[in-house]
Design goal:
The protein is an alpha/beta fold. The chain contains 8 helices and 8 strands; from the N terminus they run αβαβαβαβαβαββαβα.
């Protein structure tokens, strides 16, 4: 059993929690290679995919997983939800919860939305990305990929490079790597750096060349233009020269 009821951020997970999740994922992976890609693991369970922010890839990933585990899914998008018409989040969750929902998967533009939902329902809640805060399911998939490739996570040297200030990767992947015994270095231009990288258990530098030679994994972040709040970077050509991977 996991030590947490909801998956809001990787900072809530212990090393045993993460190991259990990755081991379970490995045991379930072979489902994707079957002729009939379905098991009854979640048969009879109802899951609401509440996507208040658009994300085709993340929503599709959850929908496919739910179908392959035989869950009943209800998809609610921000543009079609009552929230877009002015209804408060609490009322929306309580209305959906009255249908006997077992789990909410929430994607939102505002940080803290997934955590807020836990106050309005007894159903399990998974954070599928909230603003610049966290994206734990993506971080766990990244951990899975690294562990499958290297056979371990402990001792790996991982460089996370690019838009550190606006990316959810730093908030979820960096702490999870630290929990699993990896060393994390954050690399990016001064205007994208974090004021307190030690909060995530990571070192920080703007010198990509000094890091890349010794890194086991280089994780490239795109520039999150949609989340910009006044941060500046050099020209695209200069940015690519200093912090691009060729």
């Amino acid at each position: 059993m996991l030590s947490v009821r909801n998956l809001i951020n990787t900072t809530d997970l212990t090393a045993d929690d993460i190991t259990q999740i990755l081991d379970t994922a490995r045991s379930m992976e072979e489902i994707n290679h079957r002729t009939i890609k379905k098991v009854p693991a979640l048969r009879g369970r109802t899951i609401v995919n509440l996507f208040l922010e658009a994300s085709t890839r993340t929503r599709s990933s959850f929908e496919i997983a739910e179908k392959r585990l035989s869950a009943d899914s209800l998809n609610v998008q921000g543009s079609s939800s009552s929230v877009s018409k002015g209804e408060c989040l609490e009322d929306t969750i309580k209305t959906l919860d009255s249908y006997g929902v077992d789990m909410f998967v929430c994607r939102a533009r505002n940080a803290g939305t997934a955590e807020l939902i836990t106050h309005y329902t007894d159903a399990r809640v998974i954070n599928a990305g909230d603003g610049k805060h966290a994206h734990p399911s993506q971080a766990l998939l990244d951990l899975y990929t690294m562990r499958e490739h290297f056979g371990k996570l402990e001792g790996l040297k991982v460089a996370i490079v690019g838009d550190l200030l606006h990316s959810r990767v730093v908030g979820s992947l960096a702490p999870a790597l630290r929990t699993m015994g990896a060393k994390v270095t954050l690399v990016g231009p001064p205007t994208f750096q974090l004021p307190e990288p030690e909060v995530f258990g990571a070192e920080e530098t703007y010198d990509f060349d000094s890091v890349i030679e010794d890194a086991d994994v280089v994780y490239m972040l795109r520039v999150q233009l949609e989340r910009m709040e006044g941060a500046t970077i050099p020209s695209k050509r200069e940015y690519n020269r200093l912090w691009g991977l060729t």
